[in-house]
Amino acid sequence: MELPWNRKNLADVWTWPHIFWLNVFGWWGEEAETEFGRKWLTRFRSLSIVYFACLLNSMMIQVFIKFAEGDIMQNLFTIFASGPGMVGIFKFFDLVIHRKVLKSVMDRLSGLISEVNDPILNVKARKSLKQTWIIFLLTLLVFDSVVLHWALRPILAAILHNEKTRIIESWPVFLDDWTQFFLSYLFQVPGVIILGHSFYIYDNLYFCTSDVILCHLNILKLKLNRLVLNDGEKSTRELVSCVKYHATILRYYFTCKGLISSFFLY
User: Fold this and answer.
1) What is the pTM of this model?
2) Distance between CA 144 and CA 137 in Å, rounded?
3) How far is CA 249 from CA 126, 185, 209, 214, 217, in A?
4) Cβ atoms within 10 Å of 188's Cβ, excluding its own
5) pLDDT bucket at 192, cuts 50 / 70 / 90
């Protein structure tokens, strides 16, 4: 199997694999390749929004109940379990709301890469994009493992220790018997899987976008280092090209700036 950074065409090295993973649960359904996919993925996204609203209210109610029953130290698990879940919901909404802006930036950055036709710059760009792929794949592997752990923990506790536990704190508790445990698990496990997915894809997307922008800045640096300034037409043309390239990078950066501030907030 050919590694992505070894593909013949530089424009095909980095193809934004996030789009596929964003659409595992239909968040960017409009980007699906077929009409059938676009229709059903957008419907699934709408159902996810309703489900997240119910899950968020369920977690908030349980947090208030726990705090009414005791002090903060006795309810650290409630905070630990519910807090990240709420953050995951905010990340989900942020990805959906800013879909068009993010997709526009991704397309423009890909267009810039396709304009690199110098052999030396091609090698440097491949090296930088290889790093971007490594960031993407490692984040995917690590966080998928974490999500799998959280999703399977109640099942393993039930099988190995005959204990009825929940993945996150939500209301109603619903753990009096094994039927309630099973129903509670069915209610929570889709949320945990989808919220965990939103965590790592959200962070992954912004890290990789930043890394691709750095790749373009490295290309610009190499162009400037090789630039010979004189009164010749070729020198003027190359200087103008570098200025335009820099202006384009800055334009994409400022487009992302407002979105990245929300990333650091989460």
Assistant:
1) 0.80
2) 10
3) 18, 47, 12, 9, 8
4) 23
5) confident
